[in-house]
Amino acid sequence: QVQLVESGGGLVQTGGSLRLSCTASGTIFSLIPMSWYRQAPGKQRGFVAHITSGGSTNYADSVKGRFTISRDDAKNTMYLQMNSLKPEDTAVYYCATHLGREYWGQGTQVTVSS
Fold this sequence. Notes:
Blueprint (H helix, E strand, L loop, with lengths): L2 E5 L2 E4 L4 E8 L8 E6 L6 E6 L5 E3 L7 E6 L4 E6 L8 E8 L3 E3 L3 E6 L1
């Protein structure tokens, strides 16, 4: 059973930075692609960033140039470095992977104050 646990959310001012972490268990982490999604109040969950097992990345247009996704396979952990944060980045951030079915973490709240 794959388990994903996010951490690192919090309250930050506009222009600030946060780094989210997602630690996985129950799978061979180095072999699986991983993604970040977010859900703002009253909105549907949306794609943020993706990283393949080989380290290739892609991003939603709204975060390109500000967010960086990375992974440390030795630690079974994926990261999302978020810089130049804006109030519209306020959301619950989820990590996810797909192994025959989707697996999601419990989410971590990011709040950006104006």
